[in-house]
Amino acid sequence: MKLSILDQSPIASNQSAKDALDESVKLAQKGEEFGYTRYWIAEHHDLSGLASSVPEVMLPLIGAKTKRIRIGPGAVLLPYYRPYKVAETYNMLATLYPERIDIGIGRAPGGSAEATNALSDQFLKQVWAMPDLIKELLHFIYLDFPLDHAYAKLTASPRPETPPKPWLLGTSKKSALLAAELGIAYTFGAFMSDKDGEEIVQMYKDAFQPQQKGDVPQVILTVSAVCGETAEMAEEIALSSLIWSLQKELGKGNGGVPSIAEAKQYPLNAEEKAKVESLKEKMIIGSPKEVKNKLHELQMKFQADEIMIVTITHRPEDRIRSYELIAQEIINEAASK
To answer: Which residue intervals define the domain Luciferase-like in the entry (predicted)?
Structure first.
């Protein structure tokens, strides 16, 4: 089973944004060392606990600090941008780092309404135009992708020998069917969805229309997971993320990811306790063997080609160790057979 990393660059309560971004670089390096297939960094706006607002600034640094792992945005929020500029950016990266660049494509605002308006006064209009925006982007990445457009003769320079690989990210039937229609790979965000993901992923596979000979549907399943040496340790480490998620919903998460001690001391009423339990159900928390079994179960359930893991902890070393334990249990074990 292929494993990958989705990094939201969380800022802990004792960190600066610079600290968090430095830790993102370290995570990519460690992910490569552990054998993860790809590292994606998210795009968020006006969210005080998350440091990454501009993946295209971080990715050149991460590319220079790593050698093999595939890298990309998870995702570039396309309604904010002109496809031609996005193509130039990621063609440049694919030229600098051959056969290592992905473009995760998303349509979400990624932040507050105020931030959305500050970034674009045409966001909703562009959301509705998303199919055309992606087609335009694909044309600039793959020159043979058909496009009847005023910009059809433009070239997004430089032209890399191997184009960046596009992935459409989503949680809905609409996104799945669009990815299938365009014949591109699909990433289902299970960690942020309450929907019937199996049905959505199957719809994508059934409706897939290859654009070139040999094209097949490809699926990444994104999940939230925390692994510890023991189940008890994992539960303790995960509490920071759970309490922070609750705080954000209540508008109190500006202090960053709380420490384990801070999380344990956070007062919860009955309704909040129930909410924490609900949040916990969307996560995979456990010992290496428990996490491995749950990930294998999900892979079989969704028939996913790859599992992408997002892990948020207070201490950076706990996050890196979580990824390491999962890799030892799944990647190393597979390699030894």
So the answer is: 1-299
Structural domain count, the chain: 1
Task: Give the DSSP per-residue string, 284-295.
Answer: EEE-HHHHHHHH
**CATH number of the CATH domain containing 77:** 3.20.20.30
**What is the enclosing helix (H) or strand (E) of 159?**
none
Question: Of how many residues is the chain composed?
Answer: 337
Instruction: Render pLDDT for 143-175 as a digit per residue (tens, 0 to 9).
Output: 776 677 778 788 999 999 999 999 999 999 999
Residue 294 CA, chain-centre distance (Å), reads 19
Confirm if 140 and 152 have CB atoms less than 8 A apart. Answer: no
For the residues 300-311, what does the mean pLDDT come to? Answer: 97
pLDDT at 337: 62
Place of tokens 């490569």: 32
- pTM of the shown model: 0.96
With contact defined as beta carbons under 8 Å apart, do 29 and 323 qualify? no
The backbone torsions φ and ψ at residue 5, rounded to the nearest 5 degrees and listed phi first, read -120, 135
Q: Is the pLDDT of residue 335 over 80?
A: no
Q: How far is CA 14 from CA 7, 47, 70, in A?
A: 19, 17, 30
Residues 137 and 105 sit within 8 Å (Cβ to Cβ): yes
What range defines the domain where residue 189 resides? 2-226+307-336
How confident is the model over 234-275, as pLDDT tens digits? Answer: 999 999 999 999 999 888 888 999 999 999 999 999 999 999
Rounded to whole angstroms, how far apart are CA atoms 143 and 140?
6
Q: CA-to-CA distance for 21 and 198, rounded, in angstroms?
A: 34
Q: What angle do CA 188, 190, 194 make, to 5 degrees?
A: 120
**Residue 32 counted as domain residue:** yes
251 C-beta neighbours (distance < 10 Å), count: 7
Residue 238: HSE in the Cβ half-sphere, 13 Å Cα cutoff = 26
- Containing 95, the helix (H) or strand (E) segment is helix 83-96
The single-letter code of the amino acid at 198 is E
Q: Is residue 279 part of a domain?
A: no
Residue 247 lies in a domain: no
Residue 168 CA: distances (Å) to CA of 31, 159, 171, 181: 23, 22, 10, 11
Query: Does residue 24 lie in a domain region?
Result: yes
